[in-house]
Design a protein that fits this description.
The chain has helices at residues 5-14, 21-27, 37-52, 58-77, 92-95, 129-144, 157-167, 189-197, 214-226, 242-251, 272-279, 289-303, and strands at 80-84, 103-108, 118-122, 148-151, 172-175, 201-204, 230-233, 256-259, 284-286. The chain is α/β, with parallel strands linked by helices and 338 residues long. A nine-stranded mixed beta sheet has the order 1-2-6-5-4-3-7-8-9, sandwiched between helices.
Length: 338
């Protein structure tokens, strides 16, 4: 068996009908040692029956356990590592969100999940030409500032962010809404392979064999923001999937920044979400490359324990404005300066 007993136990619980990750983590609330394994199944089964107020047969749980062991072995053969919430390799950032994954599957180099600085770059699947360029440029700027780039490998802004990251020889983390034995959309299969080859990784809370469904895309958005120190929105309308990530970022108290578009693009549907989040004070506006560099500089100070806080987190908490000092780095223009 290649995974820890804790991982096997949690995955087995998740296979039981009507039992979710929160309940699974209530049942398995600490690591299971190899020496505890003989009596562990009976103890877990007893706890399941008590919490669900219905009986779960020993054979049902035994089948789930055997299926989990087989699935984890197959995952290992595919180069996929399974990490439980209680394992040492589980990312600290994710442990602190309200609804962490019970088990995380990773394909590629895991170091990016533990990096000092991570930025989620997200946005619509149908960006404007301006949005495409800014997604790539923003990712490149963040890589140059020492950030790991987190995104969702979707078409559109995610794709351009991942490409910009790789063009600058950065490390990328792609959070997927399905098992890591496939890549959706298929058009990004080559991009996924390059992310893994270039020291990055693919991440999911779903085991192999699990295909993408509508609910899983919204659920994975909480992992994108959860793995990051801040979220940068390139473009979004008022109801797109990116709005889920924004809401999760607020729930997790992650700073939020949004690209502020030039006047000629303010009538575009895919900029309406950005305008709303900026107007309502949810997000720090990023109108050009200089401001992004300054924002990232402030975020770096905040992550390293500096006094300045990055605007755009929980609006109910008092925050300091960033002391935007000039920095001697190359500016990337998003629009003309007045």
């Amino acid at each position: 068996m290649t995974a820890t007993p804790t991982t096997v136990a949690l995955l087995s619980l998740l296979k039981l009908r009507g039992l979710g990750r929160r309940t699974a983590l209530r049942i398995v609330d600490q690591p299971i040692r190899e020496t505890d394994l003989p009596g562990c199944r009976e103890a877990v089964l007893s706890c399941v029956s008590r919490l669900r107020r219905v009986s779960v047969s020993a054979s049902e749980f035994s089948d789930a356990w055997a299926e989990s062991e087989e699935q984890l072995d197959l995952s290992h053969d595919l180069g996929i590592q399974a990490i439980s919430f209680h394992d040492a390799l589980y990312p600290e950032r994710l442990k602190k969100i309200p609804d962490p994954p019970a088990v995380l599957f990773v394909k590629g180099k895991i170091d990016g999940l533990h990096a000092t600085k991570c930025l989620a770059v997200v946005g619509t699947r149908e960006p404007t030409s301006y949005g495409k360029a800014v997604a790539s440029r923003s990712a490149r700027t963040a890589v140059e500032a020492g950030f790991i780039i987190v995104s969702g490998l979707a078409n559109g802004c995610d794709t351009y962010a991942h490409e910009g990251c790789l063009e600058t020889h950065g490390v990328g983390v792609a959070v997927l809404a399905h098992g890591l034995d496939m890549v959706y959309p298929a058009t990004n299969r080559d991009l996924a392979e390059r992310l893994v080859e270039l020291e990055g990784c693919l991440v999911s809370e779903y085991p192999i064999g699990f295909g993408p469904i509508q609910a899983s895309f919204a659920e994975r958005d909480r992992i994108q923001s959860g793995l990051s120190d801040a979220v940068l929105v390139i473009e979004t309308d008022l109801e797109g999937g990116t709005v889920h990530t924004v809401r999760f970022a607020r729930d997790q108290n992650r700073p939020l920044a949004c690209i502020a578009h030039p006047d000629e693009l303010l009538s575009e549907v895919m900029t309406k979400g950005n305008q709303k989040f900026i107007k309502e004070g949810w997000a720090t506006p990023i109108p050009n490359g200089d401001e992004l560099e300054r924002y990232l500089s402030g975020l770096t100070r905040a992550v390293s324990g500096g006094a300045a806080e990055v605007p755009g987190g929980d609006p109910d908490q008092q925050q300091m404005s960033l002391p935007f000092q000039p920095v001697p780095v190359k500016s990337i223009q998003y629009r003309r300066k007045s």
